[in-house]
Structures are given as C-alpha cells and as structure tokens.
C-alpha cells in the first residue's frame, strides 16, 4: 500500500529500517528461542488465550490510528527495488457494491484441494503428508464457495480502484452480460478482464468480497488459473475494517510476468518481524522490504515474503494446473502455505485439514512480534484484477524480479503500461481467474 507522507516521515522510516536490521543481525538466537517458546506456550494455552480475548477484547485494542493516516487517501504502490507491495482496500466513503444476499451452505464441497498453516510451523519437512483415514480435523467449515453457487455470498465492488489501476469494476449483472464471469463446464468460477481491442480509458474487470467476515480462520483457495501478463496485477487477499487498523493479509499477489508469489501483511504501528532470517522464522520464502509491518511507518510496504517456488504465480502456476493457497490465522500468528497441484496433502482433499503435518510454510508472522488478534479483525476475503496502477505500472520498465528478466516496456514496445493496456485488448485473454473453491474454516 502507499500513503503520501511528509519528508520527515521518510527519515523516520529509514531509521526504523536501520533499527530493525540491527536487531535482526545481532539477536537472531534470542529471537529463535523466544519464538519457539512462544509457539510451545500457545499450543498449551490456546483455549485460555481465546477466552481472555473474548473477555477483554475492548481492552486489547491496537494503538490508535494517527488522524492523518486514518483520513488519508490510501492506495497500493510498488517497491521497485524489491517488488514489494500491498493491495487495494475498501476505503470508507469510497466503496459501492452490488450485494448478493445469500448465506452459503457449508456442507458438501466439490474441490480437490485446500491448505493451511500449523501451530508449529516447521513440524514436518514434507508437503505431501498422508494422514490416516480415521484422523479428524479440529477445523470445521464455516463457509464454502464452489460450483454453480460460487458467486453467492459475495459483494461485487463497483467503486474506483484504490490502487489507481485503469479498470472499471462492474456489478454482477453487467459482468454476466459482458461474459466476464461464469461457472464453466468444469464447475469452476471464472473472472475475466475485458478484451475489447481498444478502449478510451479503462477496461472492465472484477473485484469481489465475501459478505461473511471472520476473526481467526483457516482460509483455503484452490485455483487452476490466475491472471498473468504485462499490465496485470491480480490478488487474493483479506482485509479488516478501518484500514489499516483491522489489518490486511495479501495471500496471492504479483504483477506483469512475475513467477514467484509475494505474501504481505499491513498493520497499525506495533507489529513487526523479530528477524529477516528465513531459518529463524521457519519459512521457505524470503523476507523482502523490511521487518516493520506498520503501513504508516513503511510507506505502506508492510512485511512481505517472496515465495521460493517459481510456479507459485503467473504463467508457470497456470501451466502446472495451479494449486492451493492456505492462510491460517490463529494464536500462534499468521501463516501462508502454497501447494502446487501435484503436492496437495490428502487431508486437504478430504476436507479434513491437519495443519501440523504440512511442513514449512511459505510465510509466517509469529504472534511474538505481532499479536494476530490485536492487529487483525473482522476480515473478508477478496479477489481482484487491476491493470497498471501503482505497482504494475510503476515497474513497467523494471527488471530483476523472478520472471521479469526483460522489462514489459522492452517486451511490448509500449512506453507506458497504460498505453499497452488501452490499445491491446487481445493480449489480455490470459488475464482471468479460474477458481475451484474458497473455504473458510474455524475451530469453533
């Protein structure tokens, strides 16, 4: 995310980064021990912690949001040096939606895969653990979106794009008439971008938000295709109220021809990673951008983690038949997993997720540095595809990120992202989501 800030804030940001870097390089051993001890304690006291949260929720509030931040125009931006970014969010007064009033049944789920995180984030080295057929999961389905009823229970966002993309988000009826959404013959939900050869200003696109909100959950998304190509900026993410007070969790995000997914959180001040070391955090990804997750203190970069897998985003993800992304938000923190199509654990396919068997997550933000119930609440899941905007447009001439060995400016011959998007509709036939299912699990 990006927020206009005075020059003094920039100096403070640099100072914060320097302090975080010093801590990460001199205290990794302490951080490792503290993190392990915290995880152990969490496993033994999750029930007590949950009861205390419910009793003292009004007291356990985050630091108050600075007036200049809460009233500012917030939107996302790239970080060209690292590829780090946030994502658009629903801004009070800037949203309009087409609502579909329907409570989706959480019964049978026609899906091949789902994913999760674990309380002990490095419990196993294998991503293909096979539990016994009699094993039961503590996670129970709260909501399920799949098959012919997929779009029931979502709001279609129709406001202006907070990330400054050149898209026109449209309502459900318009999207159906324009053939930009459908349930295809495979029973999957499809969300497209307009491919009219030339447009004067914006292209029609889709952004949807779950009507159901949740605080603490196991969110599972199975997709066989995501938007890709120069000019695209797709994301699957979740967001709370009064950004950034309610927190933001970017689960799937990237731009242009990138091949490695980036997961990021954005919060109020006070949330941080104790280290930038992947081994200390127990993750397979790489921390990018810094360890301070506060939107107001980092130019809205937040805490980002780039996946190691080159088939976790974009064309390679699609070529492999996609896969499963899972976000677990519990007392231990927030973790994100990625399972390629051929590495999906059997317990996920059986709708009985057993997170402790899943091995090392892509990303993990431990509760020790960022209490997940102080900095995150009342989230909705969101799909969107924007074009150009602050990230995809901002790195149009950039290289050096996995998958982007040659810039989009060089690949397309267009000097700007906007010129390319407006005049080359046929090049956006791959700019679509095809989703098998989204499921929200909770333990109670």
From TrEMBL:
Pfam families hit by this protein: GH16_XgeA (PF26113)
UniProtKB keywords: Glycosidase, Hydrolase, Signal
GO biological process: one example: glucan catabolic process
Annotated ranges, domain GH16: 130-400
Signal peptide start-end: 1-18
CDD domains linked to this entry: GH16_fungal_Lam16A_glucanase
Superkingdom: Eukaryota
GO MF annotations, alphabetized: hydrolase activity, hydrolyzing O-glycosyl compounds
Region listing for Disordered, in residue ranges: 111-131
The family this protein is said to belong to: Belongs to the glycosyl hydrolase 16 family.
Protein name: Glycoside hydrolase family 16 protein
């Amino acid at each position: 995310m990006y927020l206009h800030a005075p020059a003094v804030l920039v100096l403070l940001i640099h100072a914060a980064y320097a302090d975080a870097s010093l801590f990460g390089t001199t205290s990794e051993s302490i951080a490792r021990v503290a993190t392990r001890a915290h995880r152990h304690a969490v496993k033994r006291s999750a029930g007590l912690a949950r009861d205390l949260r419910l009793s003292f929720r009004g007291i356990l509030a985050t630091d108050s949001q600075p007036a200049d931040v809460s009233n500012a125009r917030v939107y996302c931006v790239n970080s060209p040096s690292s590829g780090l970014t946030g994502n658009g969010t629903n801004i009070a007064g800037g949203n309009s939606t087409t609502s579909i009033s329907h409570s989706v049944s959480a019964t049978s789920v026609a899906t091949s895969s789902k994913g999760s995180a674990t309380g002990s984030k490095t419990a196993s080295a294998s991503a293909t653990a096979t539990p016994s057929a009699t094993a039961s999961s503590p996670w129970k389905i709260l909501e399920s979106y799949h098959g012919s009823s997929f779009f029931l229970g979502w709001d279609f966002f129709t406001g202006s794009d907070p990330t400054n993309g050149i898209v026109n988000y449209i309502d459900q009826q318009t999207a159906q008439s324009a053939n930009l959404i459908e349930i295809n013959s495979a029973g999957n939900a499809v969300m497209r971008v307009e491919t009219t050869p030339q447009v004067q200003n914006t292209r029609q696109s889709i952004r949807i938000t779950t009507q159901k909100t949740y605080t603490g959950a196991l969110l599972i998304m199975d997709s066989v295709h995501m938007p890709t190509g120069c000019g695209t900026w797709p994301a699957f993410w979740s967001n709370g109220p009064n950004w950034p007070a309610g927190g933001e969790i970017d689960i799937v995000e990237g731009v242009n021809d990138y091949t490695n997914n980036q997961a990021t959180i954005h919060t109020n001040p006070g949330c941080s990673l104790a280290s930038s070391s992947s081994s200390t955090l127990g993750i397979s990804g790489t921390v990018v951008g810094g360890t301070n997750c506060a939107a107001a203190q980092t130019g809205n970069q937040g805490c980002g983690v780039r996946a190691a897998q080159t088939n976790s985003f974009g064309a390679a993800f699609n070529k492999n038949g996609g896969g499963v992304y899972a976000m677990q938000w519990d007392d231990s923190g927030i973790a994100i997993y990625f399972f390629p199509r051929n590495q999906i654990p059997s317990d996920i396919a059986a709708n009985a997720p057993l997170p402790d068997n899943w091995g090392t997550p892509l990303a993990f933000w431990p509760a020790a540095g960022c209490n997940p119930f102080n900095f995150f609440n009342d989230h909705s899941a969101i799909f969107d595809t924007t074009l150009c905007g602050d990230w995809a447009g901002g790195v149009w001439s950039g290289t050096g990120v996995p998958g982007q060995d040659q810039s989009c400016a060089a690949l397309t011959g267009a000097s700007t992202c906007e010129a390319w998007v407006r005049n080359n509709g046929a090049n956006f036939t791959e700019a679509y989501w095809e989703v098998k299912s989204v499921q929200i699990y909770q333990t109670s």
